[in-house]
Amino acid sequence: MAGVPYVFGNATTSIPLSNLDADFNTPVTIGNTTVGLGNTVTTLGNVTLNNVTITSGTINASVTEAYSNANAVVYSNASKAGSTNANLTYNGVTFATVNDASISGLNVGKGGGAVASNTVFGLNAQVATAGGGEHTAIGNNALNNNVSTASNTAVGSNTMFTNTTGQQNVGLGKNALYYNTSGSSNTALGMQSLQSNTTASNNTAVGYQAGYSNTTGTSLTAVGKTALAANTTGAGNTAVGFEGLLSNTTGNANTSVGYDSLANNSTGSYNTAMGYQALVLNTTASNNTAVGYQAGYGVTAGQYNTALGNQSLKAAAGDQNTAIGHFALNANTGTSNTSTGANSLQQNTSGNYNTAQGHFALFSNTTASNNTAVGYQAGYSNTTGTGIVAIGYQALAANTTSNASTALGYLALTVSTGASNTGLGRYALGTNTSGIENTAVGRDVLANNSTGSYNTAIGTYSLASNTTADNNTAVGYQAGYANTTSTYVAAFGAYAGYSNAGDANSSFGYASQYNNTSGTYNASFGTSSMYANTTGAYNTALGGQSLRNNTTASNNTAVGYQAGYGITTGGFNLLAGGGAGYLGTALTTGTYNIYLGYNTQASSSSATNELLIGCGGTVGKGSSTGFIAPGGNMYQSNNSTLWSITSDKRLKKNIVNNNTGLDVINQIQIRNFEYRLPEEITEVSPNQAIQKSGVQLGAIAQELQAILPECVKQESTGIYTVNADPLIWYLVNAVKELNAEVQSLKQQLGK
């Protein structure tokens, strides 16, 4: 049936498949148009389709129609009939298409003045604008009174309602920047933010009622609910956080970051608060800085305070305090305190001018002033003690009420409660408890002192063992190291008085009195002077190595380098001059000797009562002798040949006549001789040689001894000496005998 037309009988007639050829080009008549099925394109005209549903497929059509209304809108009206109009009415709402649109009373378009760059949406939004552009007004009465400025953005009911000439403002939220008139470059985000702002510029407020009361204050930044809500004319303030700077009115240049920070500030200026309730009670005070949870919480009128750390300066009421660290100066009401470190000066109340640096430094300080503590728990227990200085780990940690102590070093004065002590160095005065007015400088100096007072020790380990002794002084490494209970000790020099256990000893010089134990009242000056002394007492040594080997001997005095060097147990000696009593034959056990002059030598190590004045190797003449050897003549001031002697009758007894005279004088043989050189002496010590040359005149002691034994003495050296004093008196008798003979001869001669 290809090509055979098929006519539908009615609207429900269907075409049998048998009437369609393979190409579906059997024509079908619809209305007055033949429609070809298959590949035939047919245009329908004058066809009305009723109740036709197209369930799938695509209809491509181009419809052209002419209407009587130009620029009209074609739409279906309420009667379901097609309609045209200049305005579109939909569901009872008419959309105006000329100028701004009005939808249910809302303006949509360019606003008053129809400036092309403006965007308006809302009831009465930007209705008064006569000029200016680049405005955006969204919301009831947004930018309602704006007239001539540009670049304002208002979003929200009544936002920037009274703005007239202000420009470059941004308001977002109901009543944001409501009263602004000429203020510019303001940003308000949040209901009633910057609501009262009138002429002020350069403000930023974000949050409900942020900057609410501000009128003319400029350069404000408020972020958070009611931040800077009460600010009126204050300028340059920044508040970030819930109720930050809530009560500020006229205060300037404040910065608040955190919940309730600076919430009560009214007129205070130049304050900075960062942290929850930081400086929350500050009202009129200025120049305070607080960073941390409740930092500076209690500051009200105090100024120039700085608090950095959780609850630092929480109770503060004073001025010029600085607190850095958790709970630093937490209870403070005093002024001019500085606290750095967690819990430092935590309990301080009214104490002033304190400085604490370190965790728990001056933790317990309450009312005390003028204290300084640096280090963990330095001055930890101090409550009312004033004028203390503690620097170092737990330095002066136990001090409570004592005043004027200074501790510098690890554990220096750590358990001390005594007053006016000074400890500088690791563990200096480390165990001192109630001892007072001690001074220790150096590591472990006076480390074991407990109750001893008025001691001074300078140098590592000096007076390290001192416990209860008082009034000791030691300067030098380990000076007075072993002293425990002895008093009035002075040791100056490394190891000076190292082993001391005796009272009132003074040692000056390296290792001076190093081994002294129980010896007392000794004084030594010079390197290794009295080095070996143990129990000897009342000795004085002045000079390097003087009395070097003295051990138990007492009452010796030695002046000069190595003077009395060899003395061990001999006492009551006086030696003055370099090497006096030491060089040559060294005096060791001898007593009651006097050696004056450089290198004056004892006649023997055990000599006693020997007096020697000379120099350059002069040797004493033996025990109980005196020898003056100036190397030349001896003179008396009265220019007399003989020395005066005591001859008072009142001092004598058993007085009888002596008539010895010519009989003995005639027996004495006077000889000429020379003195042997030291190397020529063999029977006795060469050191007894007489340093005199040439032919001499005199008697031979051994020969005289046979005649007048009382004139000859063998000294402890073995040398025979002559005492010529009896000869004088024998000569007197001899003269008397000769005179008698002369008188007798005269009588015989008749003269």
- Uncertain segments are 20-24, 61-67
Radius of gyration: 62 Å
Note the overall shape: rod-shaped
Termini Cα gap:
227 Å
Helix content: under 10%
Please outline the major beta sheet: 33 strands, mixed
Total count of helical runs of at least 4 residues: 3
Which structural category fits the helices and strands? mainly beta
- Write down the overall mean pLDDT: 87
Number of distinct beta strands: 44
Short description:
The protein has 751 residues and is mostly beta strands. The protein contains 3 helices and 44 strands. Among the domains are: 6-36, no CATH class; 521-637; 661-732, no CATH class.
Give an account of the 3D structure.
This protein is mostly beta strands and 751 residues long. Among the domains are: 6-36, no CATH class; 521-637; 661-732, no CATH class. It contains three helices and 44 strands. The strands form six sheets. The protein has a 33-stranded mixed beta sheet, with no helix packed on it. The chain has a three-stranded mixed beta sheet with strand order 1-2-3, with no helix packed on it. The longest helix is centred in the C-terminal third of the chain and has 25 residues, at 725-749. It is rod-shaped and about 205 Å long.
